[in-house]
């Protein structure tokens, strides 16, 4: 017994290192701090990334952010797009609909915000209680029965009771723990590029999407700003591995993919070549048989990226962070906690990832026949009531947050 009369293991706070300060990382930090953990977050970027493309918070994730107390601020940051217009090869209008009709969100409940706005809200929620190490990353870690010895790229060395990788689809934590990404990556047949460009078309609070078979170009006007989020995607049966780490090769690949395209696409391609914020990747999912090993676990895209085609990445990150923290609060033993986390979240993840197989990729048809069918469906939606939310959005009932054991 200690001088205070309490057992030693009650008085010593458990320590956790979270790798990644985007969505899943800070959300997990909030819940773990609340249950008594001493939390450190390491982020390779020098600061939070502001702005960013729009993301959705839906279904079960809405309840998570409500319990965090940030739902009113997210509603204030809600983008409130007024319409989504689909164009044909020549730029003619195929259909113009309310965004909720297209993506299956629930108006008045689900929210859409800039990714950076959500990240900033999560950071503000925990910055006074959590240690952040910006401009650093994990170089190596070594597990033992007592903890995880971590060596950072900066040279510092620390030991933690638990390490959690929340470092995205291309997680280095996952690679160090389980091996190369190729083992777990399911390519969905598309490449995409995101960047910003001047709003020379006068768009306001709307999304405009141009399609031909196997190619799509979109412009997203968030509010009435003079800047647009541009999006280019094209069908690619196999991932272009040679271009993934070469920005010049990416620009050349995109230019070739959109050669001869109509509407405003040549202007988008020219803007892409000049953009200093180009983000290029393949559309894919991370599917793993397990999300932890020993004292190291994964959460969010690092464990179960669903791809942008589902619109569920941020929501899965928020729900996964809550459920992981809940399990660690309910079980003092980390092995039991991580087993409970996987048991309780696996079906929800599987259901959300299956949205691609259930039609979530139909916005980007790869054949002329599929495009005709998609356009016919859109024209029908113009005269039909809004589609109900997809069941996966609310398929997981959140348990009450358990007190620390």
From TrEMBL:
Single Gene Ontology MF annotation: FAD binding
Xref: Gene3D superfamilies: D-Amino Acid Oxidase, subunit A, domain 2 (3.30.9.10), FAD/NAD(P)-binding domain (3.50.50.60)
InterPro entries tied to this protein: FAD-bd (IPR002938), FAD/NAD-bd_sf (IPR036188), FAD_aromatic-hydroxylase (IPR051704)
Taxonomy, superkingdom: Bacteria
Segments passing through the bilayer: none
Pfam families: FAD_binding_3
Stretches assigned to the FAD-binding domain: 15-350
Name of protein: FAD-dependent oxidoreductase
Organism: Streptomyces spectabilis
């Amino acid at each position: 017994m200690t001088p205070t009369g309490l057992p030693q293991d009650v008085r010593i706070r458990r320590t956790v290192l979270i790798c990644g300060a985007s969505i899943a990382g800070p959300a997990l930090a909030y819940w773990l701090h609340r249950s008594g953990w001493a939390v450190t977050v390491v982020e390779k970027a020098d600061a939070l990334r502001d702005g960013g493309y729009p993301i959705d918070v839906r279904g079960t994730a809405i309840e998570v952010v409500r319990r965090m107390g940030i739902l009113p601020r997210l509603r204030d940051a809600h983008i409130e797009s007024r319409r989504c217009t689909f164009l044909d090869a020549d730029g003619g209008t195929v259909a113009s609909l309310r965004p909720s009709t297209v993506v299956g969100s629930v108006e008045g409940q689900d929210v859409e915000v800039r990714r950076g706005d959500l990240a900033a809200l999560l950071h503000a929620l925990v910055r006074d209680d959590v240690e952040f190490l910006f401009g650093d990353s994990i170089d190596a870690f070594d597990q033992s029965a007592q903890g995880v010895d971590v060596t950072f790229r900066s040279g510092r060395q620390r030991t933690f009771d638990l390490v959690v990788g929340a470092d995205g689809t291309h997680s280095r934590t996952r690679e160090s723990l389980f091996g190369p990404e190729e083992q777990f990556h399911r390519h969905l047949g598309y490449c995409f590029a995101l960047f910003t460009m001047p709003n020379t078309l006068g768009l306001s609070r709307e999304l405009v999407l141009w399609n031909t078979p196997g190619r799509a170009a979109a412009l997203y006007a968030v509010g009435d700003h003079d800047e647009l989020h541009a999006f280019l995607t094209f069908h690619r049966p196999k991932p272009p591995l040679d271009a993934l780490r070469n920005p010049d090769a990416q620009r050349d690949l995109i230019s070739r993919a959109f050669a001869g395209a109509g509407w405003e696409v040549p202007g988008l391609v020219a803007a892409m070549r000049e953009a200093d914020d180009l983000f290029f990747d393949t559309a894919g999912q991370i599917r793993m048989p397990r999300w932890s090993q020993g004292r190291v676990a994964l959460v969010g895209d690092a464990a179960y990226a669903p791809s942008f085609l589902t619109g569920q990445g941020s929501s899965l990150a928020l729900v996964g962070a809550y459920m992981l923290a809940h399990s660690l609060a309910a079980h003092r033993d980390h092995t039991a906690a991580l087993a409970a986390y996987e048991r309780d979240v696996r079906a929800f993840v599987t259901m959300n990832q299956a949205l691609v197989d259930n039609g979530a990729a139909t916005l980007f048809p790869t054949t002329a026949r599929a495009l005709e069918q998609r356009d016919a469906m859109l024209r029908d939606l113009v005269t039909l009531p809004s589609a109900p939310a997809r069941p996966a959005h609310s398929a997981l009932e959140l348990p009450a947050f358990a007190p620390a054991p």
